[in-house]
Protein: Ger(X)C family spore germination protein
Organism: Paenibacillus oleatilyticus
Amino acid sequence: MKRTVVLIALAVLLLTGCWDRRELNDIGIVVAVALDKEPKTGKIIVTSQIIRPAALAKGASQKEAPVEIFSATGNTTIEAARNVTQVLDRRNVYFHTKLLVISEQIAKEGVISYLDVFTRGRESRGYIWICVAKDVPSRDILGVKKGIEQIQARYLVSLIRNEKFHFRSHTLNILRFYKQILGTGINPVTGALEITESPTYPIEQKPEKTTRNIRLHRSAVFKKDKLVGYLTPQEARGYNWIIGKPKNGIMSMPSFLDPEKKYSVEILNSSSDIIPSLKGGKASFVIRVKATTALAETQGQTKPLNPGQMLKLIKKAEKRNEVIIKTEIETAIRAAQTKFKSDIFGFGSSVSKKYPKEWVKMKSRWEELFPEAEYTVEVKATIKRTELTISPMKAEE
């Protein structure tokens, strides 16, 4: 008898339709969101980039845009998002949202209240990338079409994923951003998107002489949830060395063979350690960075070198690489301590792990203590490969 009841119950569950099923024709799939504020009213402006499935269908006109952009205002983020339905014939869903762009005004004011809906909502996901729109309204970022991707949001996400090839910026997803805001001993850094202009070339078949581009060139620095400035590309490289992010990318410097020429090494891998020490109530840190590289290009020319000469040249290059990396790291720390006064590296977090009892007394004063913290930088860089060419080349005269 019990078995019969269980089978009937399973049949009821399996044969009924999904209670919250939504037809594709009834929903608007949001792939990117921008947050701004109205200057006069202070209301929140939510701009949604929504996919147009018909434009992506096989045989659809190439002139038809694959996305539509809609904006609406409200007293809260979710109210503004819902008000989009006043101008859109679909109900927005956020399961596939890839990117959130926030304006400088909101970032300087403090973003935590604006992010609440994205961390609380069932539809949003923690892997949404978060960026700051530098010098322009965030909705303008969603309005620039550039790149190979059909859907502009995917193009912007590709820029973020390409950070590994240059490590001149650093972008967080909402989950990591939120954790760092709510945690102690570390402040978040995330990507900044800018609009730039470049010449239009005849092959592009565009009537305009210039075209607008999006550039992920800098990184936004926060103190808790408030924007306090931007890392320069060099400072961002130093920041990335400290957190052990570079796994790819290029470093270029003057050639030993010809000072007017350059040589480049490709980063194969890197790692870092932040080692804290406490003495007399003062914190100091040792930052140890290891980098493995390959010689990728040399413009300087010479007659073929024997193995001994080549090894000597590689050792000199390794020492110079270490100097460059150390300089970039020190530049980043100097900026964090003097310009931003924000511990973006997690120095405080490393203290809390090694000295938990002492950290309880220090954490309320860490914003004051961090700018005065002393540090030492140790770098070990090795060149493992010279790729397909063993020695630099020079044409016979």
